Amino acid sequence: MRRSVKITGIAILALISLVALIWFTELHEDKRGLLKVSFLNIGQGDSIYIEAPSGRQVLIDGGPNSVVLRELSKVMPWYDRTLDVVVPTHPDADHIGGLIDILARYKISYIVHSDVEGDTATAKTLVEEMAREGAKQIIARRGQIIELGGGAYLEVLAPDRSVKHVDTNTGCVIARLVYGKTSFMLSCDAPKEIENYLVQLDGSDLHSDVLKAGHHGSKNSSSLLFLGFVNPTYGVFSRGCNNKYGHPAPETAALFARFEISTSDTCKDGTITFVSDGNTVKKI
To answer: Does the keyword Cell inner membrane apply (predicted)?
Structure first.
């Protein structure tokens, strides 16, 4: 009997040691100097997870439903239930549906959103949940800089004014993530008119290594002018397989090919992750 108890005790001790080792590895994994950006495979919609060199975490959009919880758990530490910044770019269900579940599960410090108004039940529920969660809310405006630490920051490019009563896509939050010499253009569902407006305002300052194709590759986004000024090395189509909209549109895919942009697709590739050391960006 004593022998059995002794063996059990050793097994328990080994298990405790293993758990402690996992915790130590998670806590002390060397991520210094690296920015990680993951375009999550959440179906037809957008959800982008950012982990800055400082360890600060950002979630831009949450896809259409609770699938985001599963996908987020694959790129975040399993024990972590906090997010520093959440950005609902606009109140369309394929961008905010999953954020309702995120707000229920995670503690959020800041929520940055445009003041464009949605008229759906999902949009109303999100507004109620944001108020209940208690995070500090900031209305996005062009020129705002969201410091992420370690030299990384998010720059809000649009909207540049109140957009309460405009089309939700027109009023979405466009942001450029910058780290050292590298950058990511996160263009929500902005239509070509807004893209071209940014070209008039910013011109050469739009260049980015990675472009999240506007509106999941819709023919109404990714204008020739905008694509030329952003001039990315990589493009990402965030979309669901066999979606009823035909995203990405054949003409949009052809335009990316014309610019020799290496494209990835969450339908075909699953979650797509890039890492930057401040000098170069690589897909992992």
So the answer is: no
Q: What angle do CA 72, 74, 75 make, to 5 degrees?
A: 70
Evaluate whether 127 touches 148 at the Cβ level (below 8 Å).
no
State the average pLDDT over residues 51-62.
Answer: 98
The structure tokens listed for 36 are 């990680």
- In whole angstroms, give the CA distance from residue 98 to residue 276: 27
Model confidence band, residue 29 (pLDDT cutoffs 50, 70, 90): very low
- Is 3.40.640.10 the CATH number for 31-283? no
Residue 19 pLDDT: 43
Domain ranges of the chain: 1-30, 31-283
pLDDT exceeds cutoff 70 at 128: yes
Query: Which DSSP category does 151 fall into?
Result: T
d(C-alpha 234, C-alpha 236), whole Å: 7
Token pair recorded at residue 211: 């472009």
Residue 273: strand pairing partners: 38
Q: β-strand 82-87 against 107-113: which pairing, if any? A: parallel
DSSP state of 117: P
Please state the pTM of the whole predicted model. 0.89
DSSP state of 197: H
DSSP lists the bridge partners of residue 212 as: 186, 236
Tens-place pLDDT, residues 64-75? 999 999 999 999
CB 52 within 8 Å of CB 35:
yes
| pLDDT average, residue stretch 245-249 | 97
**Cα–Cα nearest to 208, from 141, 154, 150, 270:** 154
3-class DSSP state for residue 209?
coil
**Count, residues in the chain:** 284
- Distance CA(281)–CA(181), nearest Å, equals 10
